[in-house]
Amino acid sequence: MPRPTSGSVMDSMRKKSTSIPTNTMAEKFGSDIFVATTAGGVFYEVEELKLSHRDSCHLFFVQEQGNVSFEVDFQTYKSGACSIMYIHPGQVHRSTGMSNVKGGLLAIDTQHINAEYVRLLDELTPVEPLSLPAEAFGVIKEAMSFCLTLSALGKEPLHRSLLKDSCNVLVALLISQYLTLSGQAETSPAPERITKAFKKLLDENFETNKRPAAYARILHITTPYLNECVKGVTGRAVSDHIQQRVVLEAKRMLYYSDRSVKEIAYDLGYEDYAYFSRLFKKVAGVTALDFRKKSRV
Known about the structure:
This protein is of the alpha+beta class. Helices cover 49% and strands 18% of the residues. The radius of gyration is 20 Å and the shape is globular.
């Protein structure tokens, strides 16, 4: 598949691109660790927020007050006061509305996050906004405030190390809330561990491996056992997850490029264009061309 084009997300760029542009930290924030608070209700240019885009970094939002509506990978979410939100690197997202927002934003490259935290973040899928109890949110708000304070001390001795360490504390607190409120545990039974491993493999191999048996072989288990674990944990069969991941990538490509459906099918590993078209409609509920028309309105 063609490599993503970096830069601002503009309609003109979308028409020239064959894939989804990814904003790097340097391009978007001018740094590989960026901490900010709302100013006038937004973190940065409102028009940029409204355009679908994706970033190479991890994004964490700590929302003290106000209302926000947004899309992540074409799913709509809303968040209110005392809430947190995490967006994975590479997820397509945009704001669809915000009012009276007060809060903080942390954008940070993977290289600056504790390896164990990165592993836990990879396992947080799908991620939705979490509304927190006042006491728990207060602790996170203080951690965000401390990160903001350190971020402003740009020339102090050990500034970089202090900022990195404080941001990791904030990340750990946010992960802890997701693990607690989503009912996940740091030590999971075998079916959950297998399901997490499968999802990670799927994200890395969905273009080439379309059969459940391929993932079972990599995990050194039988295909029926893999399906039993995944369906028991998620309620959906392994084949459903594979199809959903393929169609998600197809949606991204339909939105951001002018490649034909046949070309997109080939990029995603399908030589049979008719089969891919039927698969897309089955999963998405609309044809690929109808999705492109509706998503670009």
